[in-house]
Amino acid sequence: MAYPANLRYTKEHEWVNVEGGIATIGITDYAQSELGDVVFVELPKVGAKLETGKSFGNVESVKAVSEIYAPAAGEVTAVNTELANKPELLNSDPHGAGWLIKVKLANAAELSGLMDGPAYEAYIAEKGKEASA
Amino acid sequence: MRYLPKSPTERQEMLSAVGVKSINELFECIPERYRLREALKLPGPFSEAEVISYFQDRAKENSGGYTSFIGAGVYNHLRSVITDTILLRGEFLTSYTPYQAEITQGTLQAIFEFQTLMCQLTGQEVANASMYDGSTATTEAVLMAERLTGRRRVLVAKSLHPEYRDVLKTYAKNSGLFVEEIPYAANGTLDSKALQSALKDDVAAVVVQSPNFLGVIEDVAADASAVHAAGALLVVAITEGVSLGALKPPTEADIVAMEGQSFGLAPSYGGPFVGVIASREKFVRQMPGRLAGQTTDTEGRRGFVLTLAAREQHIRREKATSNICTNQALCALAATVHLTLLGKEGLREMAHQNLSKARFALAELEKIPGVKRKFDAPFFNEFSIELPRSVRMVNAELLKEKIVGPLSLGSLYPELTKTALVCVTETTTRTEIEHLAVALRRALEKPL
Amino acid sequence: MNAKITKASRHTSQNEGLIFEKSSPGKRAFELPPLDVPAANSAAELGKHHRQDGVAGFPEVSEIEVVRHFTRLSTWNYAIDLGMYPLGSCTMKYNPRVNEFVARLDGIATEHPYQPEELSQGCLKILQLLETCLLEITGMDAITLQPAAGAQGELTGLLLIRAYLERQGNPRKKVLIPDSAHGTNPATAVIAGYQVENIKSESHGQIDVEKLRELVTEDVAALMITNPSTLGIFEERIPEIAEILHAKGALLYMDGANMNALTGITRPGDQGVDVMHLNLHKTFSTPHGGGGPGAGPVAMKKILEPFKPVPVLVEKAGGRLALDSQRPDSIGKVRAFTGNFGVLVRALAYILAYGPGVRQATEDAVLNANYIRKGLEGVYDLPYSLPSLHEVVFSDAIQKRNGVNTVDIAKRLIDYGFHPYTTAFPLIVPGALMIEPTESESKEECDLFIEAMKSIAEEAAQSPELVKSAPHTTRVRRLDEVAAARKPVLRWNPASATKAAR
């Protein structure tokens, strides 16, 4: 799967899409393929405050749990309620219908260090090499 | 040695195949100075017959020949020989936790049936595959309530089994929980005024037992409305499961923590028993312990697997809902077989016999001058009586008549030194009850 | 069926639905003796508390149906009684039947924990003898038999450490845990109020002692170590590890899950271990029963004894035994009553049968593991080459090249008539095959196992699909765990009942 150019990516395999001070956050295609079939997603409530680098929820597959970390501080303005009944959206459309939360950013500049699509692809290619070494 | 399937020649062949001269070479990874040079000082080896006679000798040093009127969380009930017949099948007895679902469908389906039976009994929506016992189930229920509410104070009925309270305190101490006790009212039920004034918006859970340790049945519905109004969760502990054959299930509770010993498990000097946690479906992801779930195989056939494992310690490690791993699976199977044998009518009838015999016993004992029922709220198969003198002294007299008298409540509740907790089940005969009445009368007539 | 599959054969397995689906009002499997006192009026006695109609949904079946139901279910299980059950870290050894017999004796099974002590001397003597034997085996000073299982033993052990350190003035903050540890270790540390700090293993799979030296500060309460480790390898530097901890006032906890490698050979108490638990359902042969009950006694050094959970077994003047609850420094109770007594009885029966000869069991267990290791070396990848004790850990690295992983191999082993080994643990070995044969396997059974594993390796190379779609001979095929977790069905409901498996 291609990594869309309009998104920014974290080393923890999340993607962020910023539009007008609101960041939509999800997990990347790489992250979902590593996890396998997602069975449950735990997300914060609307209004929750996120702290940079702190876990705000987790994603469960049958035999693993993965924490999701906030790439920047802010307040949750929306959560993807559809995931409660259809966690499989994270597998089928991680960069689209499988989005997790929307956050009103406290300081958009916090996201300036994130990778773009090509940089992220290079990053996961490097990880793949490490794993098989 | 009869358990070891190798001849000396075979051992030698295997050592050669491994490429070592003696077995000691395989232990050379252990530093020499720590290897034992002498055999362990252990009794034995003993033949099967000798092992049996050792335990038969110990059995003779116990309570054989005595009639007991003690319950207090461990009950003597009828058990069918069928239960042990099934339990002793090697396929159940000698199999592991059912992680490999394809060859553990027997255990998995039995757990699924156990979970269903526990839901039907308690009026809850989901139940887990078992906890260690009632005391740890109650503690885990409280920890679950803490996770669900994010609150830290816990109100515990003083009429909750004293050992359950002790276990809760041990666990709470380092979990940042604050445990407070709520007294009982004059009729033996939870003091609702005291509850009301202790209920603040920082209370995670209120724990009541019903029937409670003093024998009386709590008004769970009324307690629940007060608890819920404060945004807390109600945990109902049950030590005598047979009561559910006669009593309305605690559907108003948010979590039910039950001891399942009454369902086909022998008293066995305190264990192994089986703990149960049952709750509402929406809370399932905060439940501790294993869960079996229904699914289908690649060819569409119904089958069962352990599920929602991501809550558990082997996956979530330090973030798990609990550290429980090994539970009491075989005891849960005993309960499943036993309750299946009893069925709807059997359990109802067993409960009714307990109820009837306990009332007969109370009536007989109340005929004795000075003996009074202590609490007047409804009860099931245990009741508290007040005696005109210390229970300990009375019990010493009863022991001479081969009776293990009712539990003295004085050491557990200092205000109740002259109060005794009498337990009568379907296994107690009318003759035994009448003998107790006669012996108690005699004991009380004895000059001090 | 593969011609190389000689151990397993197909047999008739009956289909069977859920017991609730057999229910029909009016059938009974249990009758009580007639009531010998006046019948109470339940409705009048209980008022609003009364459950009028019995438990809704409870089964109504006959005795023969109950017997058949559970017997049929049982035939769908694999068991030690059927063959080798080489689950690594689980010690699935033979469960002697005499243990079951003695635990069910009148006078043993019938005893109430609150009956007077003078009528419980038999039970208390059993506890006392078991304590003595386990202290001799572990080389420790004191013991509690109360914990219900290994994980509760761990908690008890950490609470003892906490109480001891508190007495020294500071309970400290952290517990160190190697990355090869069982998941109960970190989960337990949190309940005991500690933060977990993981230590990476060094390249041979042992504790990185130099790293440990850096990590052990005045904030560290204890290190939880499993010895031999989950790789089946003895931590050679354990005395040095103990010294590092003790120099900073921290204690050494040993997870005794793998005591089957050490019993009669060496004693943790002699190596600087301060506190440890034993899994009686592993090393001491009490049955696993599909996941319990177990028992997790905790043995400790003298310094921790004052903090033991209550009640404590004591010997009074004249040799009379008693349970003492008046222990002001005790950590309290971890479980109601006196522990899983019935399990303790079985463990003592096991020890008495062997006596000092228990060493032979350990030797045979280690011999079996090494024999299997030798037989499969080269066929499967051996990621850590240090000597194995009671278990050996391979990886699926060779078979992975053909897309066959450890779970596939494990499932195929079922077709060959064996229970799978432990898959995907320890976490430090990607694609682990963790094999623990125990002493209960004959040379013949080990040979069959080696042959089966070799044959599966060939299949993985030549016809990987056959392995990946295994098992082929079980009553059900691979089950949909994803669907089970996404839409959990955790109980039977009349409305949602589906057709029984066909």
General description of the model:
The complex is a heterotrimer of chains A (133), B (448) and C (502). Chain A has 133 residues and is α+β, with helices and mostly antiparallel strands. Chain A has one domain: Beta Barrel (OB fold (Dihydrolipoamide Acetyltransferase, E2P)), CATH 2.40.50.100. In chain A, 20% of the residues lie in helices and 33% in strands. Chain A has three helices and nine strands, in the order E-E-E-H-E-E-E-E-E-H-E-H. In chain A, strands 1-2-3-9-8-5 form a six-stranded antiparallel sheet. A three-stranded antiparallel sheet of chain A has the order 4-6-7, with no helix packed on it. Chain A is globular and about 35 Å long. The two termini of chain A are 24 Å apart. The mean pLDDT of chain A is 90. Chain B is an alpha/beta fold. Chain B is built from 13 helices and 15 strands. In chain B, helix 7 links the parallel strand 3 and strand 4. In chain B, helix 11 packs across helix 13. The C terminus of chain C is likely disordered. In chain C, a hairpin with a 5-residue loop joins strand 8 and strand 9. The relative contact order of chain C is 0.14. Chain C has 502 residues and is α/β, with parallel strands linked by helices. Chain C has a seven-stranded mixed sheet with strand order 1-7-6-5-4-2-3, sandwiched between helices. A three-stranded antiparallel sheet of chain C has the order 10-12-11, with helices on one face. At the B-C interface, helix 1, helix 2, helix 3, helix 4 and helix 5 of B face helix 1, helix 2, helix 3, helix 4 and helix 5 of C.
Summarize the structure.
Chain B has helices at 8-18, 48-60, 81-87, 90-93, 105-122, 134-149, 162-172, 192-198, 220-229, 313-316, 329-366, 391-400, 430-445; strands spanning 67-68, 126-127, 153-157, 178-182, 203-209, 233-238, 255-259, 275-279, 292-296, 302-306, 372-373, 382-386, 403-404, 407-408, 419-423. With 448 residues, chain B is of the alpha/beta class. Chain B has a 7-stranded mixed beta sheet with strand order 2-8-7-6-5-3-4, with helices on both faces. Chain B has a 4-stranded antiparallel beta sheet with strand order 11-12-15-14, with helices on one face. Chain B has a two-stranded parallel sheet with strand order 1-13.
